[in-house]
Amino acid sequence: MFHNRLLKVYKHKSKQAIRQNITCYRVYDHDLPEFPFCIELYDDKVYLAEYLRRHGMTDEEHEQWLEECVTAICGILPVTDANVYIKQRKRKSNRLDQYEKTDTKAEYFSVAEQGLQFLVNLTDYLDTGLFLDHRITRQMVRNECKEKRVLNLFAYTGSFSVYAAAGEAASVTTVDLSKTYLTWAEQNLELNNLKNESKHFFIHADVKQYLKTLQPNSFDLIIIDPPTFSNSKRMKDFLDIQRDHVELLNDVIAATTTGGTIYFSTNFTKFLLDAEAIKATSIKDITRATTPFDFEGKLKRWCYKISV
Ligand SMILES: C[S@@+](CC[C@H](N)C(=O)[O-])C[C@H]1O[C@@H](n2cnc3c(N)ncnc32)[C@H](O)[C@@H]1O
């Protein structure tokens, strides 16, 4: 069953990927409930996330079952057994789990996306370093940022920053609470020969507090892609995107020049935007327009273009 479904989706998606010249994409996402996997291709490597559930198998049976699934994957995708990286994820991950290290192999490799290079790590963290669902949004930023002052908030490994620097932004400011991810973001810029200390800045801070320090008219284009929840010793208060989005976005708007643009994205499935309370000129839901072919019908995140 799994073999047939994977074969079918891979045939379909790989054709689209070739047409769009894309080598990193999501192949399979919970297509069959009995096979609760998310499978992503990163060039010649596969990221296989298994979402844990009560499967009723013993450890040995589960191991055997997983091995058979890997065999099916290697028979269909252009990968070898050694290049399948398996991650086991909880269905509803703990609020803090997402950013914790899961291993220390430090096996980084670079992949290409739309002419740019990104470091990916399939062993040490729950996420890979490159969120594939924002491929189109990243391209939008690159196309629009020429000579603009760009701010990338909750930047993670700085993939939006790389696109902005490549799009000849006047400056790119990358903010994250994690030093590890900020370093990764710097390395991503370096990898693309885009590192420039007089134009591109990395700020280790809690976004909530950082925004309070900004003067009006500080930036022209802002990307804000926060986690649903966040808590850390470095933060004065925890972050709850549903509770905090109005204040966060109004603080971002206050720092943005008139005529500027904010791209706001959230993965919180039940998110409700309080548009009335946000002091923007216009807010456009661009979720569909930013959904890549490999996330069609599967995407559980929202994306908005906010004009100031
Ligand atoms: C969902 S990821 C952002 C993804 C990123 N925009 C991208 O497209 O690659 C969330 C990031 O927010 C960071 N983070 C969490 N809480 C934070 C806070 N209060 N201030 C700054 N960064 C925070 C995490 O370290 C993580 O890198």
Properties at a glance:
single chain, Transcription Regulator spoIIAA, Rossmann fold, 2 domains, globular, binds S-adenosylmethionine
Q: Topology, pairings included?
A:
Layout: H1 2-19, E1 24-29, E2 37-42, E3 45-52, H2 59-76, E4 84-90, E5 108-113, E6 116-121, H3 135-144, E7 149-153, H4 159-166, E8 171-176, H5 179-191, E9 200-204, H6 207-212, E10 219-224, E11 229-230, E12 239-240, H7 241-255, E13 256-266, E14 282-285, E15 302-307
Parallel strand pairs: 3-4, 7-8, 7-10, 8-9, 10-13
Antiparallel strand pairs: 1-2, 2-3, 5-6, 11-12, 13-15, 14-15
Helix pairs in contact: 1-2, 3-4
The protein binds S-adenosylmethionine.
S-adenosylmethionine is lined by residues 99, 131, 134, 154-157, 159-160, 175-178, 181, 206-208, 225, 227, 230, 235, 239.
Could you please describe the fold and organization of this structure?
The protein is of the alpha/beta class and 308 residues long. The protein has 2 domains: 2-92, Transcription Regulator spoIIAA (2-Layer Sandwich); 126-307, Rossmann fold (3-Layer(aba) Sandwich), CATH 3.40.50. Helices cover 29% and strands 28% of the residues. The protein has 7 helices and 15 strands. It has helices at residues 2-19, 59-76, 135-144, 159-166, 179-191, 207-212, 241-255, and strands spanning 24-29, 37-42, 45-52, 84-90, 108-113, 116-121, 149-153, 171-176, 200-204, 219-224, 229-230, 239-240, 256-266, 282-285, 302-307. The strands form 4 sheets. Strands 9-8-7-10-13-15-14 form a 7-stranded mixed beta sheet. The radius of gyration is 20 Å and the shape is globular. 35% of the residues are buried. Bound molecules: S-adenosylmethionine. S-adenosylmethionine binds at residues 99, 131, 134, 154-157, 159-160, 175-178, 181, 206-208, 225, 227, 230, 235, 239.
